[in-house]
Amino acid sequence: MTALLDVSDLRVEFATRHGVVSAVQDVSFTLEKGETLGVVGESGSGKSVTSYAVMRILDRGGRIAEGRVSYAGVDLRAASEREMGAIRGREIGMIFQNPRAALNPIRKVGRQIGDVLIRHARATRQTAHDRAVEALRAVEIRNPEARAHAYPFELSGGMCQRVVIALALACDPRLLIADEPTTGLDVTTQKAVMDLIAGLTRARGMSAILITHDLGLAAAYCDRIAVMKDGQVVETAPSAQVFARPAHAYTAKLMRATARPGARLRDLLETPKPEAPRPAPGAALLVVESLAKTFADGVRAVKGVSFTIREGESLGLVGESGCGKSTTSSMVMRLLDPSSGRILLGGEDIGTVPAAHFPRDRRRGAIQMVFQDATDSLNPRFTARRAIADPLMRLTALGGRERAAKVEALAEQVGLPLHLLDRFPHQLSGGQKARVGIARALATSPKLLILDEPTAALDVSIQAVVLNLLADLRAELGMSYLFVSHDLHVVRLLCDRVMVMRGGEIVEEGDAETVMERPAHPYTRSLLDAAPVPPALAAETPLMETARCAP
Amino acid sequence: MAESGGHGVGGAAGVMGGSAPYARRGPSPTALGRWLKGERLGEDAAIALAAGRAAARARARMIGRRVLLSLPALVGVVIVSFVLTRALPGDPAAYFAGPAADAQSIAEIRAQLGLDRSLPEQFLVYVGDLLGGDLGQSISTGQPVLEELARRLPASLELTLSALILSTLVAVPLGVAAAARQGTWVDHACRAVVTAGVSLPTFFTGIALVYVFYYVLGWAPAPLGRLDLLYFPPEPVTGFYTVDAVLAGELETLRGALAQLALPAVTLALFTMAPLARMARAAMLEALGSDYVRTARAAGLSPTRVLYGVAFSNAMLPVVTTLGMVFSFTLGANVLVEKVFAWPGVGSYAVEALVVSDYAAVQGFVLAMAVLFVALNLLIDVIYTLIDPRTRQGA
Amino acid sequence: MTAATPARPTGLRAFLAHGAYVLRDNPVTLIAFALFLFIVFCAVFGPLLAPYDPLESNAARALQPPSADHWFGTDSLGRDVFSRVLVATRLDLAISVAAVALSFCAGSAIGAAAGYWGGWVDAVTGRVVDTIMAFPLFVLAMGIVAALGNTVENIVYATAIINLPFYARVARAEVAIRREAGFAQAARLAGNSDLRVLALHIFPNALPPMMVQLSLNMGWAILNAAGLSFIGLGVRPPTPEWGIMVAEGANFIVSGEWWLAIFPGLALMLAVFTFNLLGDGLRDLVDPRRRT
């Protein structure tokens, strides 16, 4: 039996202003009928480009320079544009990340599906609407007749992704390519969407390619996994085997760096290190009492939350988007004024100082923050040195020379090479920018550091390093952390206690291990169930447990 | 600024996207059809039908909102006009009384003009006059300003509209072609037109065209007004000579009117082409680079369908918004072009009034243009509301 | 800002290197900068270089076509058109530079305040800008000059007022999108007051798009000022000014004396063209993200 899709020695080039650059080279893989292949890699590994090349929808300036792409015996590289048009959508369907943007914003979703049906002669103008409604029903959209008349902006992100899936599967293609289909979606939505894709492809006997940066997701839904790095496939093997016996050093590193049950923070690193000691919690540092925020438009983002962080303690705040965790951290951070409630820092109510005046408050330096997106949080016109020096200039009385020395000391503390200090943010890598952000937050020796998804924008291997750095700094400086995240597995690595937030309220709070192992609230359980988890590494647990992730 | 997104003069303010034909339909045609045939509708179809009716109501509300939103602009226009009329250099009473007047006659004229009253009172009188259609008397012609403006307005509108139609017909396809074939000669041509277009002073282009096409080549008639003296103006119906000539069946007159109209219209069109082509190209490029165009390509839609069905309909929304800005430029450039071609419109009326310091006429002209512009912006906003479903979100 | 001092030499060198790169990368920008320097040169040294007195009339050589003596010919009073075009550069440039500087300062200040604080500041400035924009702008400028009096200063004020909305809008939009940006929040955490966050952190990052607007508006301001004098406002004859020279020359175009109107018109066009080209070049230069 020949493979449905056979890619061999693929090389894709892009014409840039620095000359021609190869985005992908020597990529070969095959896909059997009914098989699901995971293509896993970090950003820039060429995994999306590979799929675009298969579909021949590369951006302007990109072209397939070498190699063969054969689909069911048809040479896709040699196919005419007209032939490709007949294959796209009918033989190969594709879904994308950011589903909202992937739909035409000014056309009703039913009509968009109808367009594709008509294009591939699966419907006529008269039957297009009814067929589109059927396609929507197939992706388990409730009230498909009404939804067909909705515009994308009227639907939620998860619903939009279902529409995109309906569009891709409307003409019953034999192959589905899913390019990061759930990135940006909440974990429970992600599970629903992935289960839907898996269910539909299995029911229709389709093959699928799942492109993702998330090893856990690939492990949970794929038969085989191809690992990509720098435009090349470094390893292809059945899922279980990849986890049990990674053949390539990079695969091993990637797997090691992924947060997973049973792994400790140090297990994520390539080179083992002794576990950082967790400081024993001291007296109460931050006491939040019935904190609430109602915005001007009447939205009650936070409905009265209370919690305590003790000195040296690390508290995790977990929830999905819109649960109020960012609003809560902004209020504690004193960037946003609460509607009611108290924020006591070391016994003093800092909630009474308006956010507009807090920058000049003497307690400003005591609470600092590491931002979600390091790129966004650095002034593009400031060098790293200037960025780290800024809080020192505003909040301390240090002289010029002392300040310069302090900046370099901070850089060393966070492992930022000194020669990078004179670079602008756009000249630094993601991990380096994260270090600059941490150094800046540490500059005023804060007692409480709020970590707002500090690794969400980072690749998994850099995330592992940054999380370890944060653990080391806490051990060294005795700070308290409030770690805001959507990812329970990451939170567990760094936190002593965890709070789970939903709809502006805290639904569960407790010791990190306890909450993870024996969640009391059904919502916590659904969060834990939804999070895809790669099997534990062979060295950590018996191999048998990996069976749970086989599809 | 607070309303810049909604107020059509926002120029490039929002790339919001939109498409005409599909958004206007309320309920689903099939559902409605079945309902009309007396079939019993399923729950889904009933919901769809209700949603359609709700959408129609939302649309009406949004249009009402747009009309209300243009009122502050109108009030602002009237206040500014009032301030401008009262800010005449020196003492208006002394000015209107003439150089030979003594103190007593100046005082009389002041009372007659109402200038001895308080400013708020003067403003109320001014607004009252405006509501009564009184823009004052022109001192040079002795005619009421409103009457003269009304008489000359069709000439200006004929020129402006033909120029706008001409430039849209050239600029939008040019911008779209440039974006579709980025980096080719069409693209370079488009950029040349855009850069040259915004650099050309209209009055200079007009004169250069007159020199080439009238003096050197002799193809165009003398740049003197709307119709050569050989022809009689057609029976006025719309006031547009070209349209009226067609209505009257006088083809010779139509030819004459078109010959006179050609150069000024081209001059004005050259000027307005640049912002339209620039916006069409930019909007089209953005649409072509968007995720939804990628989805459409991945679904196998034909290149033509992707280009015109998906990208183009989205790209036209910012172009519609740009029209507001283009109208502003056109109404200004009109003044200059009318002067160059001795076109008997409101612009040359204002210029003639300026020369003899006929201030009532000038301010009447400014106010009339502003009111016209507010109305045009309102029209653009309403069109926008109709073609972009997202503007109805807030309703 | 002592902390930044060690970085400064490299910063400056990097900036110059980036400038050289931008110029090399895009020859059009190079041409634009060269033209710009040429125009500034004419504005500064024009009166010194002019071969004839721009005001001196000589009936004996009236309406002569271009020749070796009179490169751009002579006008109806026998004045040298080349000298008049050259000398006019200073006045035309001065009017538009003054107007643009005024509206840039005022517009960016109110726009930035509106974008940063929002609320009633935004509502009030928004109304003012909307009211200005409710007029066709050139027509409003006519009305303002007619009301304030027919002088060169009033041309400057009128041009400044009709330019104001553009700067205010760009500044407001660029500041508003950065108001809640991570780096602005970080600056607040670092102890910067609102004014400092706005002036030192947000505003410099909003500058690139404003510079482009500045350059494009410069051309537009020149066009408007020349247009006003073309219809007889502001500058009075016999002062040499491009708009008025085109207006004077227009009367002779139908009888074939093209040089009277064409040369000042071309000069005007060249100036506007230069500033428009400069706009894109400036953006490349001031945007650090394009430095590599």
Radius of gyration of chain B: 26 Å
Largest interface: B-C, 65 and 60 residues
Structural class of chain C: mainly alpha
Strand percent estimate of chain B: under 5%
Q: Which outline of chain C best applies?
A: globular
Tally of contiguous helical segments of chain B:
15
* Share of β-strand residues of chain C: under 5%
Give short descriptive properties of this protein.
B: 395 residues; mainly alpha; MetI-like fold; 15 helices; 0% strand; disordered N terminus; C: mainly alpha; 10 helices; ATP hydrolysis activity (chain A); membrane (chain A); cell membrane (chain A); Peptide/nickel transport system ATP-binding protein (chain A)
Descriptive report:
The complex is a heterotrimer of chains A (551), B (395) and C (292). With 551 residues, chain A is an alpha/beta fold. Chain A has 19 helices and 20 strands. Chain A has a 6-stranded mixed sheet with strand order 6-7-8-3-9-10, sandwiched between helices. In chain A, strand 19 and strand 20 form a beta hairpin. In chain A, helix 4 crosses helix 6 and helix 13 packs across helix 14. Chain A is globular, with a radius of gyration of 25 Å. The two termini of chain A are 23 Å apart. Chain B is an all-alpha fold and 395 residues long. Chain B has a domain of 215 residues: MetI-like (MetI-like fold, Orthogonal Bundle), CATH 1.10.3720. Chain C has a domain of 176 residues: MetI-like (MetI-like fold). Chain C is 75% helix and 0% strand. Chain C contains 10 helices and no strands. Chains in contact: A-B, A-C, B-C. Chains A and B meet through helix 2, helix 3, helix 4, helix 5 and helix 6 of A and helix 3, helix 12 and helix 13 of B.
